Amino acid sequence: MDEESTNVSPGYVRLFQYLVLLKLLLLTPCCLSLLHAVLVPLSKNMANKKMEIFSPLEAVQICAVLEDCLDQLAILGYIMPVSYEGRTDISNVGASIFKILLFSFLANHLFSRAAKQSAVSSNNLRKVQADRQDASDVIAETLQEMQTSGTFQSLLQAVQREKERKSNFHTTIIREEEGRKEIKSLQKRLQDVKKEKELELQNRNEMIAYLKDQLQEMKAKTDMESRYVKKDTELQVYQTQKKCSNAESDLVNEIEVSTIFRLFVKYLQQKLEEKLEYWMEKYEKDTESKQQELNTLKASKANDLAALQELAKQCRLFEQAIMEDRVEKEAARRKVEQDALELKSIKKLQAWWRGTMVRHNIGPYKALKKSKEDEPKGKDKGKKEKAGAKKRK
């Protein structure tokens, strides 16, 4: 064991230290923001060096740390509030989360304390969830590469892509700020020119309106004087002629109207007397018939009202039965969905816990750990005995 530890390369030690630090950061609420701070120094340290291939033992140790990181990220995804969206029953979600938190008490405690100190919006939570997924994909790709070839080139490439994306984004922001400043200056100049032109146009419009008013007043004054003189003379002649003709026509009309009016009044009186007699008879007949129809309609209304009340009663009973049936079906559907969700969560937790016990030699796997510890002790004793025999010789 001592000889193997002395042969470990410095690059492996540095990578393993960064991975352990990454695992610890995943237990904090701000792990996704600190992930970049861990990966960037790693890429700077390894960029100028030739990519080395680790031994199988080193690759297994690194893979164990990466698998633990993936498990922590998966648990963090289930804990985050964004994962609750789209679920119908919040009490069922609480039960599922309680089962997950039972096996990850430390992560749950730190995340709950950070969530109470700073209230974040749903948009920020979605962004954090997306960052967590990206980090999980990068670690999974690195894990696969480490298992197959014993290198971590994909991890460095992911960090380089992130740096290039941030650099391009920063350049775009600078260009946008410069464009906004130029637009503001142009808009200000445009407003100044617009105000000057509007003021000049307003002055000219006022002068034009004033001159038009003067011209209209002069025209109206001259036209009014000429029309007044002409109409005055015409009116005097017309009034004199009209008075004579009106007097003659009025006398003739009055005689004719008086004669016709007397005849018309006599005729109208006769017709009104005949209509009065007719309408009196019709009124009596219509009143009697309408009274009979009213009695018939009242009886029909009473019958229809009784039938309508009976139908309404039956309708309410049917609606109540339908609502009860729907409530029972919905409760059964929710119970089936809850049972399926609980079974899925239990299976995931059992698989994760078995993997944790195997990696950390907990529970029934303690004997495996002891057997591994006894083997190096036996080798050390054999070396000491050989060394003592050589000294005696």
UniProtKB/TrEMBL annotation:
Keyword Nucleus assigned: no
Tell me which stretches of the chain form a coiled coil. Answer: 176-221
Instruction: Kindly give the InterPro entries that the UniProt entry links to this protein.
Output: IQCG
Residue ranges annotated as transmembrane are: 20-42
The keyword Transmembrane helix belongs to this UniProt entry's keyword annotation? yes
**Major location, coarse class?**
other
> Any idea which UniProt keywords this protein has?
Cell projection, Coiled coil, Cytoplasm, Cytoskeleton, Membrane, Transmembrane, Transmembrane helix
**Annotated region described as Disordered, given as residue ranges:** 364-393
> What's a GO cellular component annotated to this UniProt protein?
sperm flagellum
Provide the protein's localization. Answer: Cell projection; Cytoplasm, Cytoskeleton
Q: What ranges does the record list as Basic and acidic residues composition bias? A: 370-393
Instruction: Please give the superkingdom of this protein's source.
Output: Eukaryota
Q: Name one GO biological process term.
A: sperm axoneme assembly
What is the protein's name according to its record?
Answer: IQ motif containing G
Source organism of the structure: Gopherus evgoodei
